[in-house]
Design goal:
homodimer, 416 residues, alpha/beta, Molybdenum Cofactor Biosythetic Enzyme, Chain A, Alpha-Beta Plaits, Maf protein, 3 domains, five-stranded mixed β-sheet, 26% strand, globular
Chain lengths: 416, 416
């Protein structure tokens, strides 16, 4: 089954928001065997919507539309769907009841006329219940294409996809199986990897595609395939994995299916019954945020400190000022003390620290922009690692956090 | 001038990455008076690329393409451009010199054959120098349309847009002026706002569009207009702003042109020569990360603590355990102590804290999911504020940080 996604909203086309809905929808469709052929973002403009609907219908079996379902005048998707399907809006009592319920239970304010209009839906649409908002999802079948329209608010759309759209698609259609396997590597550029695995790539069966995705000091290699039989795909993927792994042994970190790197580390910590504490300087809280953005961090994370100012490294983290004077605040010695002291303060099993200069200009030390030290303290001792991360602030921070996570993973695996 | 953006890459269509390039490109084009008509994301598939190029050319004057320029086999944009323009690849000496220089100075590894192929470009293309990578940008004029092809790596693409594409577009074309004004509001839903400002909306001149953008406890109202004369637009926008502001006085926070809320707060802190320290529990480092992701935070940020575990609130932040026993760790009293103690520990002018339960399940307290207390301490005393933020973890955290930033802004403005 081939799908297209149409996201509607002026805010996307003027760059006021990043369209994250498309990536989410693509990823969950992919998991149930629906491949996305095109993603199109357009303004709230009737003629353009009609053109995009027709173009998508001519190419695919499933058209997923988000946005333009709000109660205000700038939202025109519902009226345009009526025009496209030669249909009319009619009052849907179950939607009206749901909107009334939401206002009574959650909004706790009187319902306005505009809110009631949310219950007007095209007569040809089947309703998909939106638990988190007043705009219902709509499922409209026309010739051989299914149109699904959902609000653009991400958590409402996600609720609709999970609770309504995906189960219905799986029930109604016989979907093939799509399989991706993504190998995370670090320390080598994509051209060098391509040269090294050239023979492997040339010998890949035509049914398997290989892609290279470079980002923040790593390259992801993705093998993709699809077909009607899961067994066959998995066997073929296992064969190729077995061929590829020895070729990239020295640069391979893990599979992406294991989750984000911080999730891999989190799982290792929980499995080994270990806790961590974090002391961040140049990474400014991004390391702890990587852990806490997922639920369950309280199982292994004792806490963290961001000691941005040099004085706070001394006052709060107890770094020895004579060490700072002697070696500079951006040094292996300071990174080590930060890691050890964070571990001691928070009474954790592991302490990890960053100190460096992410730029754009020099800070409390003379260290060149991009210089980063990472300290790792355990019961067995402390190590500090030196890196040059380039001169682009966001990338320096992102690469430093990735590197710290890799060091954490290695030390947990090694020391158990 | 009307533009379309085409982003190329299987990783977008399977949802492995979020396409952030389009939002960036749209936003910077908009600022120089180019409006984006459509954004299209497609796979690395020759037939589909050709179809998308033709469709975009038929609708617009400018087609901006990102992605598919890597040195590996999955990247086919350059060959497809040749086919589309009936052109051939030829070796460009200046690109080859640049690639050779990058390898010598930065990569410090021998150049591979694959890297040299980066210097093969369509003969009809003018080269745009990519300071940050080996794939050059390309500018191809065909009939009345300009095609621009850039690599998909965000920082390479951004460098090309800033240094090459935008200046050239401004030089070569007479562009109109596009003006947006975005009003940030909080505390009222979009329908209620729409009802309140209905007369204003109905009386808006046809040249000005109004949009409502709800997100994380706020609604942004955006007025947009465009035309050849900046003066005329600014005058008209000033008139409408003067009409709208009194209608939303009680819910208005500021204009979006002032930057992200944390940037507004950062500027206020620097202007008032004040420093802050942050103690976070339920927000898990996201507040400090909002500040440190921008440069220059060391001017006003002394540091932060994430005290996730209750014991670390006692050990490190010095919260009184009897207060925790009496009022629970999620309470106004604990929030107040956290803010006061963070201020004292870091020797800052202001201390701000969060404690609450972001979910998904209950933590170290019995507080209902969504319960959040925010403490603000200054030299004049401490206040704690109670909120119910719903039951969606990411939204609870996001709304809490927004609310904390609003409280910070208010206190700096008030106490100066």
């Amino acid at each position: 089954m081939k799908a297209e996604i149409i996201t509607i909203g002026d805010e996307i086309l003027i760059g006021q928001i990043v369209d994250t809905n498309s990536a989410y929808i693509s990823s969950v469709l992919n998991k149930i065997g629906v491949s996305v052929y095109q993603i199109t973002s357009i303004q709230d403009d009737k003629a353009h919507l009609l053109e995009a609907f027709a173009a998508a219908q001519s190419r695919t079996d499933l058209v997923i539309i988000t946005g333009g379902l709000g109660p205000t005048k700038d939202d025109i998707t519902k009226h345009t769907l009526c025009e496209y399907f030669n249909d009319e809006l009619e009052l849907n009592q179950s939607v009206l009841d749901h909107v009334t319920y939401l206002f009574k239970e959650y909004v706790k304010k009187p319902m306005l006329e505009a809110n009631k209009t949310q219950a007007l839906v095209p007569s040809k649409a089947q309703i998909l219940v939106n638990k988190f908002g007043t705009a219902p999802g709509m499922w409209i079948e026309d010739k051989d294409t299914v149109f699904i329209s959902m609000p653009g608010v991400p958590y409402e759309m996600k609720g609709l996809m999970e609770n309504e759209v995906l189960p219905r698609l799986q029930e109604q259609f016989k979907l093939p199986y799509i399989l991706h396997k993504t190998f995370l590597t670090y320390g080598m550029g994509e051209s060098a990897i391509a040269e090294r695995i050239e023979t492997f790539e040339n010998e890949l069966p035509a049914t398997i595609k290989l892609a290279y995705l470079p980002s923040l000091g790593r390259v992801r290699l993705r093998l993709s395939t699809s077909g009607p039989e899961q067994d066959v795909l998995e066997k073929e993927m296992a064969i190729q994995t077995k061929k590829l792994l020895p070729l990239i042994d020295d640069i391979f970190i893990g599979f992406e299916s294991d989750g984000e790197l911080e999730e891999v580390v989190a799982k290792l910590l929980v499995d080994h019954n270990k806790t961590i504490a974090i002391a961040e300087s140049c990474t400014g809280g991004q390391m702890v945020e990587r852990f806490t953005k997922h639920g369950g961090a309280s199982q292994y994370l004792k806490g963290s400190l961001v000691t941005y100012a040099t004085q706070s490294k001394i006052d709060i983290l107890g770094v020895d000022p004579t060490v700072i004077d002697k070696h500079s605040v951006v040094s292996a010695e300071v990174a080590s003390q930060m890691a050890v002291n964070a571990k001691r303060l928070y009474k954790s099993d592991i302490g990890i620290s960053t100190t460096g200069n992410a730029g754009p200009s020099k800070g409390d030390s003379d260290a060149e922009v991009g210089t980063v030290y990472i300290g790792v303290a355990t019961d067995k001792g402390v190590t500090a690692h030196h890196f040059m991360m380039g001169n682009h602030r966001k990338r320096v921070i992102g690469k430093s956090v990735n590197k710290a996570l890799e060091l954490l993973r290695d030390v947990i695996r090694k020391e158990g």
